[in-house]
Structures
1.
Amino acid sequence: MGASGSTRRVTFEADENENITVVKGVRLSDSVIDRMKEPSSPGRQQRGSGAVNNEELKKRIAEELALERARRDSEAQKRRLKQEQMYVRDEFGKLLERERISSNEHLTRAILRERAATEEERQKAQRFARQLEEKDRELKKHDAYYKEQLARLEERVNHFFSPFHEEF
């Protein structure tokens, strides 16, 4: 699992004396080069053979390359994770904004419905008040008419009975 996915070939060559291994086609970080420059432990130098050192060097380089690839992969994963977090945060923010707008629209519609219902109730109350006033005027007219009729009847009764009353 290489970080760059390249298909470079790495070759190992030994010099004439087999004391130095030449690695071609490999990029090494400064930390890898510094670790390779560190003096070897005394046990390694006493082994003596250049071929053993060559094999150990190849093994060490391969390990360093694997560590470097793992570090690059880890950094790439961290970058992807940060990008994904930013994406999720942005999407969550957009979702919250849409939800806020939606709830504001619902609230606005509910307020408008309530205002319309209140206005309808107010108009209905005014209509009933006018009807009540109209009935009250009619009742007053009827009351005045009946009082007038009663007065006429009383006057007639008095007029009719007053000649008899004088005779007795």
Note: Residues 50-167 form the longest helix (118 residues).
2.
Amino acid sequence: MPTITKIYSMLEASQHNTRGDCWIVVEGKVYDVSSYLDEHPGGDDVLLRATGKDATEEFEDAGHSKTARELMEKFFIGELDDETPPPIPELQILHKKNHQSFQNLPTKIINFSKQSYWFLPASVLGLSVLVA
């Protein structure tokens, strides 16, 4: 008999990111691991860092055992709605000093093109006069 599964958006799952209310997403499934934080062998900070994003890669990289995968089913609360886009990460602000070397690049290119703009037609005209 089919089981009814609750569907969550990534935004909704990412809002449960505290020690008392911690959800993670692994392989499109949503897990409420709040009660498991103290028991997790890797520590609660590992699970807390996994909130708000798809933690499948981190989960696979950790090399969890079959027993750990079976234990996860105890915390399963629903599936991720794959049609909603993930939340947009915050933009990183770059330091102004990184941009100073590129600030004058467009004007240098424009100045170069203005200087060489007359050179090509003059060269063609000069060559045609010589050939004639």
Note: The first strand starts at residue 7 and ends at 8.
3.
Amino acid sequence: VPMLQANPFQHRICHVFSTSDDGDDSMSFEDFLDMLSVFSDSATSDIKSHYAFRIFDFDDDGTLDKKDLEKLVNCLTGQGEESRLSSAEMEQLIQNILEESDIDKDGTINLSEFQHVVSRSPDFASSFKIVL
């Protein structure tokens, strides 16, 4: 899929939608259809936010912590030196994200906190198309 080839989250998308027991993140035709249904215009915001959360949860532990957020920012800004944030900028950005999203103040963002933030963003469904 050409859109997936250039996507900075391509490996995470394949990982999240793969049901392969081999651990190689390969996708069956059914997996592929599931992926397309999530990214379709008819999928609900709850479904989209659930899968976005899983894609952004790089360590698959059920929360977005500082490491997940750093990887997320790096995927969005690119890995090149010219686009990479300084350590201080990254720390400030992650702190701002956590202050805005971490309702229970445990230092991580869980699925319900993520969905709460998404629910306040009417443009989320359309911006989620960027991921795929």
Note: The longest helix spans residues 87-101.
4.
Amino acid sequence: MERPSLEINLPDTHEEGKLYVVDSLNNLNKLNVCPDGSEHVLDEEENTGGTGENTAVSNSRNQCLFFVTFILTLIVSLTLVSFVIFLIIQTRNKMDQISSRLISEKKNIEELKKMNNMILKHLNQSGIKE
């Protein structure tokens, strides 16, 4: 009576062995053919049935991430440009102040030269010689 049970279990074991060998070959093929990162993509495609749902979600997620990154880049760029414009305006104001001071100092120096010349003329006319 043992013999018929062995005959029934033997084909099941043989089929399980075939499935194990096929799964092992598939896993080995995945390791040899696919890079490390794409192995997970294949597993996820097998789980979803290869309908492309994963790629659609991934594409929309990538588009959203790109959009957010683009907006943040624009904000940072606008902030930097505004700061540069502010610095240019401040520098121009300081330069205007410095140039007005230089002009007034130049006028003062010219007045001092005139006064010095007048004093020298007065001294020369009064007869005081060095």
Note: Residues 53-126 form the longest helix (74 residues).
